[in-house]
């Protein structure tokens, strides 16, 4: 599992990436998807994830929809129109950052 | 077989959240759903409700709940409508007031000074503080954002001075230039040089 320091700053981008590939997702689904995709190497704490989701919602990047699942409500998140552009920009920025990081620390890995 | 929570059990989760200091309705629903999913997961492993709920509480600790609650209140304190669109429209409106003021002056319409005062107050006490707040809320690079704000402030004041007095204020112009150059140097030129050096070093290797 990676340290908090490494994860800091990437949680929002991970959320944006997942939401750009799925129409809508809810909190628990996001944490589980991240765990599955990374073979448990990235575990986002509930505190960090919900804080990021609420920040993205407050700044208009995400919007929420409450859906009744059985007898209880579930809050789904989706990208807003402007949020989709923010997601593309942030993902591209992270990709460029990883490439630069690869220049500084030669990992001998190819990043597409 | 997956067992779903009864209404009574779900209410117990709601009660726990309220007791933990989560007060916002939407957040209570969201966190209750999260805890309910975890509890149902443990129920499916054969534990009883009390044990399952205890395990779910271990996963989402009380301090996390408080952190989420406090952060959410903080983020929601920033009004949604004060986004980029609003700030751009506001800046355009102020610019329109300036142009209107120029027309008033050339048409010798009285009280054009009042328009000047209104526009300047709008810039100093509304637009610029809102810009700073917006910049600081969006992301975390405070140094970059504060520098960006100071640059925007000087630039706005330079333009405002020019529109009002028909002359450039040397103080504001020089500060705009200085901050603009710092911006260019720190955030564009230095990274570019660094990038080229790294590529050269890599090629040498």
TrEMBL record, chain A:
Every Transcription regulator PadR N-terminal domain range: 15-87
Listed InterPro entries: Metal_resp_DNA-bind_regulator (IPR052509), Tscrpt_reg_PadR_N (IPR005149), WH-like_DNA-bd_sf (IPR036388), WH_DNA-bd_sf (IPR036390)
SUPFAM superfamilies according to UniProt: Winged helix' DNA-binding domain
Top-level taxonomic group: Bacteria
Family annotation (Pfam families): PadR
Protein name: PadR family transcriptional regulator
Organism, scientific name: Mucilaginibacter agri
From TrEMBL, chain B:
Transmembrane parts of this sequence: 86-103, 115-134, 170-193
Keywords attached to this entry: Membrane, Transmembrane, Transmembrane helix
Species per Swiss-Prot/TrEMBL record: Mucilaginibacter agri
UniProt KW Membrane keyword: yes
Protein name according to UniProt: Uncharacterized protein
């Amino acid at each position: 599992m990676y340290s908090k320091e490494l994860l800091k700053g990437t949680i929002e981008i991970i959320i944006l990436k997942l939401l750009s590939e799925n129409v809508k997702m809810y909190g628990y689904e996001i944490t589980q998807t991240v765990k599955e995709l990374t073979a448990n190497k990235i575990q986002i704490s509930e505190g960090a994830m919900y804080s990021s989701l609420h920040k993205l919602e407050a700044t208009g990047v995400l919007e929420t929809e409450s859906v009744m699942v059985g007898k209880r409500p579930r809050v789904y998140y989706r990208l807003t129109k402007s949020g989709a552009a923010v997601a593309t920009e942030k993902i591209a920025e992270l990709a460029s950052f990883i490439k630069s990081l690869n220049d500084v620390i030669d990992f001998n890995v190819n990043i597409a | 077989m997956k067992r779903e929570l009864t209404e009574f059990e779900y209410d117990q989760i709601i009660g726990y959240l309220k007791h933990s200091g989560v007060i916002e309705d939407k957040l209570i629903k969201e966190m209750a759903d999260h805890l309910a999913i975890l509890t149902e997961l443990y129920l499916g492993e054969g534990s009883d409700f009390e044990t399952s709920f205890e395990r779910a509480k271990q996963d989402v600790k009380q301090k996390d709940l408080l952190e989420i609650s406090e952060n959410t209140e903080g983020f929601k304190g920033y009004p949604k409508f004060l986004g980029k669109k609003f700030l751009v429209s506001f800046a355009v409106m102020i610019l329109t007031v300036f142009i209107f003021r120029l027309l008033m002056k050339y048409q010798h319409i009285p009280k054009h000074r009042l328009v000047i005062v209104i526009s300047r107050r709008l810039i100093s006490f509304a637009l610029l503080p809102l810009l700073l707040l917006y910049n600081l809320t969006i992301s975390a690079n405070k140094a970059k954002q504060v520098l960006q704000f100071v640059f925007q402030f000087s630039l706005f004041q330079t333009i405002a001075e020019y529109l009002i007095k028909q002359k450039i204020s040397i103080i504001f112009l020089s500060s705009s230039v200085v901050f603009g150059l710092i911006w260019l140097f720190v955030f564009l030129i230095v990274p570019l040089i660094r990038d080229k050096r790294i590529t050269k070093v890599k090629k040498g290797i």
